[in-house]
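RETRY 2/3 - previous attempt timed out on the joint model. Re-submitting the same 869-residue input unchanged.
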Amino acid sequence: MNNVETYANIPVIINKGADWFSSIGTEKSKGTKVFALAGKINNVGLIEVPMGITLREIIYEIGGGIKGGKKFKAVQTGGPSGGCLTEKHLDTPIDYDSLVAAGSMMGSGGMIVMDEDDCMVAIAKFYLGFTVDESCGKCTPCRVGNKRLHEILTKITDGKGTMEDLEKLKNLSSVIKDTALCGLGQTSPNPVLSTINNFWDEYVEHVTEKKCRAGQCKALKKYYIDPEKCKGCTACARACPVGAITGTLKNPHVIDQDKCIKCGTCYEKCRFGAISIK
Amino acid sequence: MDTIKLTIDNRAVEVPKGTTILKAADQMGIKIPTLCNFELEGLALKNHPGGCRICVVEVAGRRNLAPACITECMQDMVVKTNSPRAINARKTVLELMLSDHPNDCLQCPKNGKCELQALAADMGIREIPFQGEQSEYPIELSPSIVRDANKCIMCRRCESVCHEYQSVGAIGAVERGFPAVVAPAFGKNLIDTNCVFCGQCIAVCPVGALSEVDHTGKVLRDIANPDVKTAVQVAPAVRVALGEEFGMPAGSIVTGKIAAALKAIGFDYVFDTDWSADLTIMEEGTEAIGRFKAFLAGDKNVKIPIMTSCCPAWVNFYEKFYPELREYPSTAKSPQGMFGATVKTFFADKIGVPREKLISVSVMPCVAKKYECEREELGANGNPDVDYSITTRELARIIKMCNIDFKNLPEAKFDSPLGESTGAAVIFGVTGGVMEAALRTAAEVLTGQTLPKVDFEEVRGLEGVREATIPIPGVIDLKVAVVYGLKNARMIMEQIKAGNCPYHFVEVMACPGGCIDGAGQPYHHGDASIIKARHAAIYKADREMPLRKSHENPEIISIYKEFYGEPGSEKAHHLLHTHYFDKKKHFDLEK
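RETRY 2/3 succeeded.
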């Protein structure tokens, strides 16, 4: 079984010769590579680049930089079994070996660019959701281990995580890598391990401060009404689907955090910019 | 032979090429824990999926840990079975397993016999660090087997046994990922599948996911009931295994203690299935002789080979897979069935109790016997010949519940008139035994001569398929085959179907080595030496019997005189023979 990409390379190699093909790329990874460039980037799509190109060249030249001029945060390569690379990896020439050395992989050739609005804990959870679904169930570490990893990540993004959970994540991830039967299980903890390595602070923030700096973890979001800006128009209180906002006409309103379901309706209704997300 | 040198836990070892790390370590006295890995050596039962990952070890230079059970030794390999990395991984994998396990050990049928429980104890598990979703499956009851998939650890031993050893394939891995479990396809119950209730899945299950239907409560209830009388029969293989449940060495023969224990428990009449095994030989032997004679006379319609029909899982097998060949097996009921029919007619009349007031119980090494008890054709007016059957393990529990010191119990004798037996009967408990018992009687009946030697060594052994030619002087060179494992039985059935079966007489047992490793026996946990000790004990019990041929049993001679007339009589046909059904349609997916 071969990928379409491999077959697509064959006619060019036949027409132009192996030497020509080998002249492109790095010492160990010859030729070109197709990536599916996606995420928070201006030019998305399939790109074919020579091996050894840097992430910076791909993201800022071919990809045209981050959407909306936001700040680059990470790039996830290799699909669900791959890992997240950061700013410090931007100038590394990428080939099969350097990606593995950096804690990710070429894998599927997926390349997803993330900006400051992406939560790395939620990203790890997202990818793990895929491996939980795809596990065949034959070996224990993948069948049960990935499920437990996913549950711990869910606990953290729900704001219920502890520092002990972070230790469990680390140990469990390395044991799954060490003991799973096939390539799926052996690589499934990569998104967790690479985000733990590169974005440890974000994990700790979720656990100790119950804060998601990207504002992605709904359970950790808090909506506040600035009493200075609130005109007491009652628009938010009338729109709130769960009756979490109280206040009288022309007086500042208050959100009951226990009742609030973080739907964001009040935020959209407010005409005075009095509601903020923390 | 090519050998490999390697180092395990800082000790050098040399092993034949192809040896796994697990086996190499085992030879050195290093016991790497396992769960899914299973092998009953020399008895054709094995399971090596490499799925549980409990046996992982550290191999120098290898990126990840290696499963010792399926990793072959390589030249100059350096293995650490007890490094902190290996122990941590093993413990974490075990904790994961326990995190999706009910952990209700005190109420579990495998309590004290569970391999997962033992491993958790050895690994010093004090808490389970992972909490989360638990698998939830309904608990399923069938006539023989209780299936609690919530306890399944996906070792898949049962699946290997069911598919590869029995060629039945009633259960297999279903679903994927976290919900994956071993179960019948399409959410069916076992009774609606091609399951033959051999119960070998129970015998190999390391945990309590598969267990026997428990009738111990019924036994205690009926014994205490003043309105009924109770009669019990004990199968041959039980007497060479029950002692294990009381710390006695494998292969201890405890016949007299069983009789004493059953009396102490309070059964009114303590009889022996060995008696009806002798009766089976009379009936089945007579039927066989009749068929051989017809065959020799050139009758083209006679069904040859005649096949034994005492194994209830085998009966289920041909009813479900080969109903078109169901005229080949003997119509003789099993010894359990013959005993039941006799006790509920002849004996009930003798003691003046209506059959409904005489509770007939059997102690069997088997769980398929429970299914056999529920067969409508094995009873009269809706009252079964055998009310229920308990396993060797259930009897052990009852003995313990009744505060009986089994090990030190003085021996007793079975009651008359259904208690006397011969050596031919006791060997029913091993593969080849029914064949040998039948030959002892058939040869003498056919030739009219006394056998110079009663031992038919040719049909003994523990190979899954054995064949022999037995000369019956002046009559026939009898070609016989003895098989155990339904996969081997299937092979014979395919030969019959193709018209090229070379045998005249075939014995089939479903379980490894015959009833000695029936699914109701004490758990062997993969130790084949236990089965071999039981095997030797059966032949020892045979040698020690004063009478070794069924037709010489005085209580058999007298039952024919008093009740049945002669073997194959109309009354014998009515009570001691049965008929088989086409049960293929019940599970055939195409229909």
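The interface with chain A takes residues 49-54, 56, 64-65, 67, 85, 88-89, 92-93, 96-97, 99-100, 129-133, 153-154, 173, 175-180 of chain B (CB under 8 Å). Closing ticket.
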